[in-house]
Design a protein that fits this description.
The protein is of the alpha+beta class. Among the domains are: 67-248, Biosynthetic peptidoglycan transglycosylase-like (Penicillin binding protein transpeptidase fold), CATH 1.10.3810; 327-429, Nucleic acid-binding proteins (OB fold (Dihydrolipoamide Acetyltransferase, E2P)). The chain is built from 21 helices and 30 strands. The protein has a six-stranded mixed β-sheet with strand order 2-1-5-22-23-24.
């Protein structure tokens, strides 16, 4: 066979092989291409974005998301940021049509040498295709698909549109998707505020966000930054001196604050539950809703702090329970080593943490926290009793009767940092976590808006929201509801009721006779007593007699229209608050008195807006000028007059006397008109303080989840009122002092407090009493006339 013939055969075979390869590639392209997603869908780019929960002033209080992403247009991004990413990730971005064959060839050689996929060589366009249209598998087939999709994308999208997709989609570490979220994460600023040095840091992250994290590996992040700046210089984006200056710039890494504002967790969890029920979890985690709530952030944080401080004070009054645990020598060394790693710098003032008791003197207890030494002054431990520090081989001994506790060296104590000195010494106080729980809820009575809601000591320890989920006995805090019902049955604040012993007998289930002898808190009786004085002093017997006179069923119906939804006991114990209700229910009822007899349903949300700016829900009809469509809802919270303005004012006026002359005296610390009532249950298991000023109503509750006594003398005034007062002082500091408005129908008359009858205005013991129109007495008290007990429950004043 001649050489020319052989060459001709070889050429034909090569042509056949080449044709076969082309046909195979064409067939593969047609096969794969037909099964690839449509790039046209990228024109409607709708990635998962965060749902933002805002306070009543528009401040961010929480975020809900699956991927933390905030979309920003390319026009808002610094040019240097775009150039940094292009230089580092795809220098030929503006010149290729989606695929860079040179980069692919270099990556292929590396992959062949490594025996697997170690380098991608993907362009920015290919990365977008992989992220948005393909699965993240590392196979050669996926690279083929990437190339096809990248080419198609370049035909349908502009370079700026591709950059928009890339810079908003890319993962940049620590939960941040896109450059805006990353700018917030690392530098606590918006993307348009980034410096060249910061742009280079972000552009160095896509290859390995964890490895180059400026939080964890600042040196590696700086090395990567140098590489990005060098690439920008090589591509002609920046001069060399600008790169050098940017590299020398000191980076200030400011970790983004947690998306959950401290102290707001109970409120935002209630909002989250509502959103999930209304829109579904997928929508709130990916849909980018903007949720405007009624929360006042300053009030909310004040409420949480007031609850915590009050629980800690109460816990101290119950005594010290001893150390958390004791450690042997080896355990002590391990404990201090771990703490040294946790606290390379001194813990901040206010931090509560564990410390190791080293020794004690007459003046101080010495405590080690890692490499730091702290002192607890003995004078600060008097609440804990007599603390005796003994050798570490001795046991812990607690003598509750003598308030004496034996603490061995090596005991682990809970302490709070109160002072950090320049010499490294720490000023500490002895602490312990409260065992009791508490709740506080505050409403704007004129709208029903919940301004603050705290459901416990610490949301991270217990998500049970006691402000709305706990049903506890309100005790005497329920009495104003009974008195309001009585006022609408003909009683007046001046009505005299005999505070005398009562005995009720009834048959038990087994036929045995049982006796109930209600008594007042102090066990004594006051005889003829006005309604005003009876409420101010929280007399039980008077309230029981009033309830028996007006009727239990009537009182239950009255309480229901005030906003009490829980079942109520249909017997006379109702007068003493024997039916469990939530703090929010009590707040709703009291708000009716504060709002002149008009009831609103408590509400948390004022507006919900979707990612496109469309209002989905709102309390304002103006948000739906053409009416709500099928996807929109007007949140209706209509006001309803449930009692007269006169009755509402009289109850408020009565509760002002509770503050001025009775058990609510702690509210006088506000220095402004306030109406309030304490509540204490049998065996001191629950303590309440509910009260209001014209602009704000709040309820404070404290008790144990597993019901037991709060301790000796732990009444509503002592155990619950301090949290209320502390909260209200902060909440009202920017609100003007106001008097409760007096309805036109209210009349004021001089009254003899002993008889409830009219008295000369110049009398020595005259009291100016308030009456609803037409209910004031018309007779004057006689000097020698004393009220008699002709009516066991209520004296007929007109017959005197």
């Amino acid at each position: 066979m001649s050489l020319s013939k052989l060459l001709r055969i070889l050429l034909l075979v090569a042509a056949g092989l080449l044709g076969s390869m082309i046909l195979c590639l064409l067939g593969a392209y047609l096969y794969v291409s037909a099964r690839l997603p449509k790039v046209e869908t990228l024109a409607d780019y709708r990635p998962p974005v965060i749902t933002r929960i805002l306070g009543d002033d528009g401040a961010l209080i929480a975020e809900l998301y699956r991927e933390r992403r905030i979309l920003v247009p390319v026009s808002s991004m610094p040019r240097q940021l775009i150039e940094a990413f292009v230089a580092a990730e795809d220098s030929k971005f503006y010149h290729h049509q989606g695929v860079d064959l040179g980069s692919i060839a270099r990556a292929a050689l590396k992959n062949i040498r490594a025996g697997g996929i170690v380098q991608g060589g993907s362009t920015i366009t290919q990365q977008v295709a992989k992220s948005l249209l393909l699965t993240p598998e590392r196979k050669f087939s996926r690279k083929f698909k990437e190339a096809i999709l990248a080419w198609r994308m370049e035909q349908h999208l502009t370079k700026e549109e591709i950059l928009y997709l890339y810079l908003n989609q890319i993962y940049l570490g620590h939960g941040a998707y896109g450059v805006q979220a990353a700018a917030e994460n690392y530098f606590a600023k918006n993307v348009e505020e980034l410096t060249l040095a910061e742009c280079a840091i972000l552009a160095g992250l896509p290859q390995a966000p964890s490895r180059y994290s400026p939080y964890r590996h600042l040196k590696k992040a700086k090395d990567r930054q140098r590489y990005v700046l060098q690439r920008m210089t090589q591509e002609g984006y920046i001069p060399a001196d600008a790169a050098a200056q940017a590299f020398s710039e000191e980076l200030v890494i400011l970790p983004r604050n947690k998306p959950q504002i401290p102290g707001a967790a109970y409120f935002t969890e209630q909002v989250r539950r509502y959103l999930e029920q209304t829109f579904g979890s997928e929508q709130i985690l990916t849909g980018g809703l903007e949720v405007h709530t009624t929360m006042n952030l300053a009030m909310q944080q004040a409420a949480q702090q007031a609850v915590r401080n009050n629980l800690r004070r109460h816990d101290r009054r119950q005594g010290y329970r001893g150390p958390l645990r004791t450690l042997d020598k080896q355990e002590q060394e391990l404990f201090l080593t771990e703490q040294t790693a946790t606290w390379p710098e001194a813990p901040p003032v206010g931090e509560r943490l564990e410390g190791l008791l080293v020794k004690g003197s007459k003046q101080n207890l010495m405590v080690r926290i890692g490499s730091y030494t702290g002192l607890i002054p003995r004078k600060e431990t008097t609440w804990a009793g007599n603390l005796q520090v003994v050798a570490e081989d001795q046991p812990v001994k607690i003598d509750s009767d003598k308030k004496r506790i034996q603490l061995p060296a090596g005991s682990v104590l809970l302490v709070e940092v109160v002072k950090s000195q320049k010499d490294g010494k720490l000023g500490l106080s002895l602490a312990q976590e409260p065992e009791a729980q508490a709740a506080l809820v505050a409403l704007d009575p004129s709208s029903g808006e919940v301004k603050a809601m705290v459901g416990g000591y610490d949301f991270s320890q217990s998500q049970f929201n006691r402000a709305i989920q706990a049903k506890r006995l309100p005790g005497s805090a329920f009495k104003p509801l009974i008195y309001a019902a009585a006022l609408d049955k003909g009683y007046t604040p001046a009505t005299i009721v005999l505070d005398t012993p009562l005995i009720y007998r009834e048959k038990g289930e087994q036929g045995q006779e049982k006796e109930w002898k209600p008594k007042n808190y102090r066990g004594s009786f006051s005889g003829p007593t006005s309604m005003r004085r009876a409420l101010a002093r929280s007399y039980n017997v008077v309230t029981i007699k009033i309830l028996q006179d007006i009727g239990v069923r009537y009182a239950i119906g009255y309480a229901k229209k005030l906003g009490i939804e829980s079942p109520l006991a249909a017997d006379l114990t109702l007068a003493l608050g024997s039916s469990a209700i939530s703090p929010l229910e009590l707040a709703t009822a009291y708000s009716v008195f504060a709002n002149g007899g008009v009831r609103f349903t408590p509400n948390y949300i004022s507006r919900v807006i979707d990612r496109n700016g469309k209002v989905l829900e709102s309390v304002d009809p103006a948000d739906f000028p053409e009416g709500a469509d099928d996807q929109q809802q007007l949140i209706r919270n209509p006001s309803e007059r449930v009692i007269s303005p006169d009755t509402a004012y009289l109850v408020t006026n009565l509760m002002e006397s509770v503050v001025q002359n009775g058990t609510g005296f702690r509210a006088k610390a506000l220095g402004r008109p306030a109406a309030a009532k304490t509540g204490t249950t049998n065996d001191l298991k629950d303590a309440w303080f509910a009260g209001y000023v014209p602009q704000l109503m709040a309820v404070s509750w404290i008790g144990y989840d597993q019901e037991r006594s709060l301790g000796k003398k732990e009444t509503g005034s002592r155990a619950a009122a301090p949290a209320w007062v502390e909260f209200m002082k902060v909440a009202l500091k920017d609100l003007p002092r106001q008097n409760f408005p007096v309805p036109d129908g209210i009349e004021f008359r001089p009254i003899d407090p002993d008889t409830g009858l009219l008295a000369p205005e110049d009398g020595s013991e005259v009291f100016i009493e308030a009456f609803a129109s037409g209910t004031a007495p018309t007779h004057y008290a006689l000097e020698d006339k004393q009220p008699n007990a002709q009516d066991f429950f209520k004296l007929d004043l007109e017959d005197l």
